[in-house]
Every structure is written in structure tokens, then in C-alpha cells.
Design brief:
Strand content: 5-15%
Helix content: 40-55%
Number of strands: 5
Distance between the termini: 36 Å
Strand order of the largest sheet: 1-2-3-4-5
Largest sheet: 5 strands, parallel
Number of helices: 6
Shape: globular
Order of helices and strands: HEHEHEHEHEH
Length: 191
């Protein structure tokens, strides 16, 4: 946190992370990580997740015990979030409880990609334990929020405790769309 790690540093770190299967928290906040750095991380996690599917021991997936991923206050935009979403579709992260993406450059397209990954329910949810999702201080508009709301209507967000969209470009219309969706949602609560 609060270093000057950029995309090159993230590329170097990404390959090493998959060799740390017991990792529970990864703090990369307040750096200079952009889309290409997050794409490197997503590619490494996808490769690590696919490799772990071949092993018959313990939990599988990329960083199977990772509970907190902090990428807030970086330079991540839609392309980086899209890569993260694609990774989540291919190799879910069942232990991830907190995802911090605040203070980046994420717009409606990035939010839409993330919503697609969050809504996945077959063969199993991408983020079944997600409790905190922070997307404040990005570039998300009413359209992005409405799209997120519609995409997560029957999501597995039943564990969600904190959803932060503050300091974006959202007006009453976006919040009305989100509220109506939440009221009518059919969330799959864990048993």
C-alpha cells in the first residue's frame, strides 16, 4: 500500500502470487497500477486457477483462501476490470469477502463486465462469500448502475453487507433503478 508500484511491478508480482496458495489478504492500494497491471494479475490468477483444477487436494481456484483484495486508489479502468471479470468467470474466488476498487477510473463498461462475473451462478457463483464491494470515486453513471442492478437481479449477492457507489456520477435515476432491483431481487442466501 502507498508505494509506487506500476504495471511492470504488478507483472512481476503476479506470477509469484499463484505460488502463495495460503495468501488471505492482498493490499495493493494507493499505487500506480493500471489496466495492463491488472490484466497481468488476472491472467496469472486464471492460469493458477486452471492448474489447481488438476490437483485433488483442498480448495481449488486462484488463491483459494484470499479473503481481501484491495486495488483501490490506482489507475485501473474498464479494460483491467474486464480482465478481472473474465478471470472470475473462468476461475471463481469462493473465499473472497472484500473487494476494494474505489478511486480508480472504472466506468460503465467495467461495471458491466464485473456484473456479468458477479451474476454467474452455474456451475457455481464467482464470488459466493462477497460481503464488501467498494466502487466509490470512479466514473460510474446512472446507466452503469442500472445495468449493474439488472445484471445482479438473481445474483448470489446474498452475503453482501457493504455496497459503495458514492462519489460517482449517479443521480436519483440510478439509485431508483438499484433500489427497485434490490427490493425485487431473488437472492440465493447461503444455507
Amino acid at each position: 500500500t502507498s508505494n509506487r508500484i506500476g504495471d511492470d511491478g504488478m507483472a512481476a508480482l503476479s506470477g509469484a502470487l499463484v505460488r502463495c496458495p495460503a495468501l488471505q489478504e492482498l493490499y495493493l492500494s494507493s499505487n500506480q497500477i493500471g489496466d495492463s497491471g491488472l490484466i497481468e494479475l488476472a491472467d496469472a490468477l486464471r492460469a493458477g486457477g486452471e492448474a489447481s483444477k488438476d490437483e485433488d487436494q483442498g480448495p481449488t481456484g486462484p488463491l483459494p483462501y484470499l479473503a481481501c483484495l484491495r486495488l483501490d486508489s490506482n489507475k485501473v479502468g474498464d479494460a483491467g476490470i474486464a480482465a478481472l471479470a473474465e478471470m472470475l468467470l473462468a476461475t471463481p474466488m469462493p473465499s473472497l469477502q472484500q473487494l476494494f476498487l474505489s478511486c480508480n477510473r472504472i466506468g460503465d463498461a467495467g461495471l458491466s463486465a464485473l456484473a456479468t462475473a458477479v451474476r454467474r451462478s452455474e456451475p457455481g457463483p464467482s464470488l459466493p462469500g462477497l460481503q464488501v464491494l467498494r466502487l466509490d470515486s470512479n466514473q460510474i453513471s446512472d446507466g452503469g448502475l442500472a445495468g449493474f442492478a439488472l445484471a445482479t437481479t438473481t445474483s448470489t449477492l446474498g452475503m453482501l453487507q457493504v455496497l459503495d457507489f458514492s462519489s460517482n456520477q449517479i443521480t436519483d435515476a440510478g439509485l431508483v433503478a438499484l433500489s427497485e432491483t434490490l427490493v425485487n431481487a431473488k437472492y440465493h442466501l447461503p444455507r
